[in-house]
Amino acid sequence: MTAYDSTGAQGAADAGDDVAYDAVVLAGGAARRLGGADKPAVRVGGRALLDRVLTACADARTTVVVAAPRPTARPVTWAREDPPGGGPLAALDAGLRHTTAERVVVLSADLPFLDEDTVRRLLAALRTSGTDGALLTDAGGRDQPLVAAYRASALRRELAALTRPEGGGLTGLPLRRLTGALDLTRVPDPVASFDCDTWDDIATARARIREHGHVLDEWISAVKDELGIDLDVDTKVLLDLARDAAHGVARPAAPLTTFLVGYAAAQAKGGEGGPEAVAEASRKAAALAVRWADEAAAAKPDAAPDATPDTTRPDAG
Fold first, then answer.
1. Residue 132: which of 98, 99, 166, 159 has the closest Cα?
2. Separation between Cα atoms, residue 241 and residue 87, nearest integer Å
3. How far apart are CA 9 and CA 14, in angstroms?
4. What value, to the nearest 5°, has the Cα angle with vertex 186 and ends 182 and 190?
């Protein structure tokens, strides 16, 4: 995987065109196979599908969501095709009008397994290929043009061609009218390309994130979204600390200790503690737990070394 410097919105703008990108998320479909349900709001792993996608493109300089406005886990720019419900090409055109970066990640709002690494892989493939875009292919090898990174200039060129009088308007046109004119690089990924079109798809996604290999990462991501925090920490360090506290002190010490570590990290450096503060607080607490366990192991079973003799016993002294 190509290294990618996640610098945030302003950082991306300052880092140059090789890093900066905008994102357009299409979230206004009718969801007919879900019975007309508000698909972007359907929750998988406790988080709305739209919020999961927004987390995956959190590095974008500008994120545009083409849909009616709604509460989201992070701020976005809202756009709407005219008329509403005009289809994916009309929605893409509406969203693209709010972007300025040369690289644009285009996503649907129903991708439960999309993550930041996948977005970075698409951007890396776009940078190195010299093509108009890089898109994922699903388990069957089919193109997924709404999980892709494109050159904005290529998108604008082809959208303009489709909206000329001889080409007609964009309303109702399928995406293949656009993608068929582009030179594209394909990146196979059967997991990140999985989208939720039916309730069976929703059930499959909900079951997968509860599998042993995924549940902790999913839970931590959900908690961070719910609490409105963006902090990457070494979860193994925290789990090891909880284990040491539970075994070396007492089982209830595990959650209490990790809470205190988080509180100490939040107070560090005048309230600006980050992952380094969490790591340092964890190190100190883990060392304390080890000392505590060592003392318990060294203690004699009948009395502590500094116990005061019982002088009331006849054989004392």
1. 159
2. 51
3. 9
4. 135
